[in-house]
User: Fold this.
Amino acid sequence: MLARKSIIPEEFVLPGIAPALLRKPRFRERPRKPRFIAKNGACNLAHKNIREQGRFLQDVFTTLVDLKWRYTLVIFTMSFLCSWLLFAMMWWLVAFGHGDFDYTKTGAEPCVTSVKSFTSAFLFSIEVQVTIGFGGRMVTEQCPMAITVLIFQNLAGLIINAVMLGCIFMKTAQAHRRAETLIFSRNAVIAVRNNRLCFMFRVGDLRKSMIIGATVRMQVVKKTVTPEGEVIPIHQIDIQMENPIETNNIFLVAPLTICHVIDKTSPLYCLSAADLLSNDIEVIVILEGVVETTGITTQARTSYVAEEIQWGHRFVPIVTEEEGVYAVDYSKFGNTVKVVAPRCSAKELDDKPSILIQTLQKSELSHQNSLRKRNSMRKNNSMRRNNSIRRNNSSLMLPKVQFITPEGSQNMSDT
Assistant:
């Protein structure tokens, strides 16, 4: 007879099926959509198949500023080195044409003194362009060509210095460096404020130097399909923010909570708490302003996807008054607390205002219950404290002592 192992393959045996089931999960997570703007403000966009590369050379200065530091330093070094070598070759040709290398020639004044080889011509080229002037080599009046080369090298050196030093300065003073100290809260929240459902996030500045004329703009980026069937992968929709003077300017002297009222004009108007997680939506926040110390316009960016929007939360206060000074506790910058908020959309709240009333009543009842619990806990703690004090006082009381007099009578006294 054949063995059982040959009749039933090993992959159909129960011990072999169980590990396979464990290795292959039945439920797969929904693939995360790539975000358009990263949390640090970088644009998550790759440019491909650019055929007209020559357009970048039409604006050489901006191209040099946009390059990475290692490429900029290589170009900086090679530009000076190549110019020194080029003019060193020209000085060597001038000296060679005038016959300065003919050692048998005596009494004739050379075009450039002490230039006897290509090495000395290279040193003279460096001295001319960087205006060092050690004094051993100099141009004489014998060669007009040498004077012309001297003029052209000075002009070329000034142009190279202006371009390269300006490029280095612009790279070190770029606006996004100032944006590193402009911070946003890690998560955004949706809660009820002034009886309206609001989208809120927090922004702050870590430096004491202010951002002049700071403005905040918000956009919603999502994939939409038009009635004609056109697919728009990156559809940008502006969001208006709550401001009584109808402007987005803010005074960023302390961390602020930026609020957007979800009304009929908002792209979040029809989204509920459940719909928010199922929609591929991204809220982009842009903060712009002028740096007070340098006068350069800076811009800070961040974004919030559906997983980073907390429904029914509120930011904790972080600004307190201590000895006449307002203090900001940045350790609680992104902390939130859970509050009672309707889980429905703002559209449903406008259609049924009773939902908001019921929610507020529940929040009021829960607040009263919490206050009652706190008061009861305080009473219990005070009673326990009083009982412990009484016990300690009773333990400290001295016992009564009996004194026996010589007559045999007993006297009671407290000591």
In short: Confidence is low (pLDDT under 50) at residues 1-28. The longest helix spans residues 353-396. Residues 78 and 273 are 59 Å apart (CA to CA).
